[in-house]
Amino acid sequence: MEIILKEDIVGLGYKDDIVKVRAGFGRNYLIPQGKAIIANESSKKVLAENLKQRAHKLEKIKNDAKELAEKVKEIKVVIGAKTSSTGKIFGSVSNIQIADILKGEGIEIDRRLISIKEQIKVVGSYTALVKLHKEVTAELKFEVVSE
After folding, report:
1. Model pTM?
2. What's the mean pLDDT when you consider all of the chain?
3. What span, in angstroms and rounded, lies between the C-alpha atoms of 6 and 13?
């Protein structure tokens, strides 16, 4: 079943993307929740016209995301964690803590857009990917130190 997304859905696609999903997922969840519409010929034509009219607005959003990516790359994030004498962290560092620190720096980024490749259990330097736009991602370097 082909649908047109009305909003960004993590793991599926971005607003105004035409994606294929299972019929049950589309009919029972996405369409009733107002997150998508069925992609028939008329809705595809309406979408094409809307995208044509919004092209310059989308370019501005993309440029803003690129500027934010440059700011994120320059930020030095230091996360303090309670550790044992060997340097192992009690618990782990997650994207929630990174989002809180960025919020303190004045950059509002949703925690779900920050992805950390490995599980952080020891003190050291790491990298996280921040997805700011469907075409713009930034690498955020952060360091975990002992409190």
Report:
1. 0.61
2. 89
3. 10
